[in-house]
Amino acid sequence: MPRDNKTPLIQKIAKQAYITFKCLKTANGDNKLVADQHNELISLMTAVRAADLRIAPRKTKKSTGVAELHNPPVTYMHICETEVFSMGVFLLRTGASIPLHDHPGMNGMLKVLYGKVSVRCFDKLEDPLTGGTVPPDFEPALAPSQTNSQWRSVLRSVVEYSENSGPCLLTPLRDNLHQIDTVEGPAAFLDILAPPYNPDDGRDCHYYKVLQTVAEGDMDEKSNEEQQGEEKEKEDVAWLLEIPQPEDFWCGGEPYPGPAVSF
Predict the structure, then answer these.
(1) What is the DSSP string of 181-245?
(2) b/e map 195-227, b = 16+ CB within 10 Å
(3) What's the pLDDT tens digit per position in 21-67?
(4) What is the pTM of this model?
(5) Spatial separation of the C-alpha atoms in residues 164 and 176, rounded to whole Å
């Protein structure tokens, strides 16, 4: 069947995202159907470029300290939202970072439009208070009120993405927490979340920071062989502390200039 070349690519992506994530909820165990729809969405996301959304790469601008304080490090262009998914574009200034955060019960795709980003992905392993794991000592030590906000987790990956990369994927159980940092300049990425954030349905955004244990601090005083031996069993395990939204991070808004999306 010939492709529809008149329909804007972003419209095709929106339609396929709706089909894919609707199918995920209603497929009744038909894994092949879900996989086929998911792969089609990945293919469309891989093809999208900034020009398809009429977005021009931003140049690095020198600004004064006062301007830095007033300009948001990240802005968001809203494209569309349904009960099934939301879609928009995040634009990050040079040196900007979206702090480590989660996506409770959500699937997602992130496709870089220009620039380059480094994405660190984590997953929670268990609630330390019910999972039977005794938390280590941290440096600096946690306040008693923070005990219920710590999580044992695993660092799944650290990967750099550019416009020539395929999309970065997340699911409710895999790579669900991530931090996004610009690399060598400004960047922008198309973002799909399914279903959208909704605090009333238990899908609020939570922020985290990686804790340093006392043992990790002591590593500096040990030889490389000793460190490598101790790291084999503990490789990629990390402890996270849920924190308020960092004061140096906020997200502004700006109009989306690309083709309109409709359903």
Answers:
(1) EE-SS-EEEEEEEESPPBGGGTB---EEEEEPBHHHHHGGGS-HHHHHHHHHHHTTEEEEEEEPP
(2) bbeeeeeebeebbbeebebeebeeeeeeeeeee
(3) 999 887 766 788 899 999 999 999 999 999 999 999 987 665 555 55
(4) 0.86
(5) 23
